[in-house]
Design a protein that fits this description.
The chain is α/β, with parallel strands linked by helices. The protein is about 50% helix and about 10% strand. Strands 1-7-6-5-2-3-4 form a seven-stranded mixed β-sheet, sandwiched between helices. Helix 9 links the parallel strand 3 and strand 4.
């Protein structure tokens, strides 16, 4: 997805948010804002992928702050809050006539754990309040039947995770994917190093993914979404051979929509107008969309 004018205030808002997570030094925060505005004025280009520009901006901010992970506390709290909701999620899945679809909706609800942007939550504790409402909304765009047919014939799946907290629910989804197709090889992909509130390989350790996935891969170097220009060799091999790609979240859409990788299914909440417009689906809905 190419960057749009709406992305600019969103990037700046998030930069201010993450600077405030890292420091209370007003001079440092002012330095961050001024540096980001200068950088954006030089690199903004409507022909460039939004995720690539965001990557450069957040790399700059992390360097100025001298902080490798400003979101570390929010990520821990997100996993804890999501963990508290697991008994309710299990109850819903166990009672469902379609456990796989229910697990997808629950995993998409976790995608609201996105901080410092419009459409995301301001703090992890908000998920407790939002969970039932978002569950009752169901899917605002539903390619589930198409996805299910692809899944039935797939022998290998690459599953790209997104935020912490959300990733706790992804474990239940991976379990139901295996239950649906026991012969399927699932490779879980998490960030190689901290960026925003995204789950890293280290963050998913201890969440017992090994019970339901066959391997955990690194997405590589610092990047919003995925740097598909220079992925790790093992990930590149998996991308070239996989039968199906599952992508959680908006940043992964921003990256993959610039490529020819297919078939691919996006599972996300359309939190912003540019994403919704690019995907041609309503803003503010839970969505499963397949590109074949």
């Amino acid at each position: 997805m190419k960057i749009s004018t709406d992305c600019v205030p969103c990037i700046i808002k998030r930069v201010i948010f993450e600077a405030g997570l890292s420091t209370k030094d007003e001079d440092k925060i002012k330095e961050v804002i001024k540096s980001v505005c200068r950088e954006l004025s030089m690199i903004y280009d409507p022909d460039v992928c939004s995720a690539k520009i965001a990557t450069r901006i957040h790399r700059l901010v992390y360097d100025i702050l001298d902080d490798p992970d400003p979101y570390r506390n929010l990520k821990r709290r997100s996993n804890l809050i999501a963990g508290r909701l697991i008994p309710r999620a299990e109850q819903l899945i166990n009672k469902s006539s379609d456990p796989l679809k229910t697990s997808i909706i629950i995993a998409i609800i976790g995608n609201t754990l996105d901080f410092g942007i419009e459409g995301g939550v301001s703090e992890p504790d908000k998920l407790d309040v939002l969970f039932e409402r978002l569950l009752n909304e169901g899917l605002g765009f539903d390619d589930y039947d198409v996805f299910k047919e692809l899944l039935r014939s797939s022998r290998s799946v690459l599953f790209f995770t997104d935020n912490c907290g959300e990733v706790v629910f992804d474990r239940l989804l991976c379990r139901e994917l295996k239950n649906f197709n026991e012969e399927m090889h699932i490779s879980l992909v998490a960030k190689g190093e901290p960026v925003l509130s995204d789950a890293t390989v280290k963050d998913v350790e201890g969440l017992s993914f090994e019970d339901y996935v066959d391997e955990i891969l690194s997405a590589g170097s610092f990047a919003v979404g995925v740097d598909l220009d220079k992925p790790p060799e093992r990930l590149k091999e998996a991308l070239d051979k996989t039968d199906l790609i599952i992508c959680k979240g908006m940043a992964n859409y921003e990256s993959f929509s610039e490529t020819d990788y297919k078939p691919i299914v996006y599972m996300l909440r359309t939190k912003c107008r540019p994403i919704a417009k690019s995907m041609n689906i309503p803003q503010g809905v839970n969505a499963i969309k397949v590109y074949k």
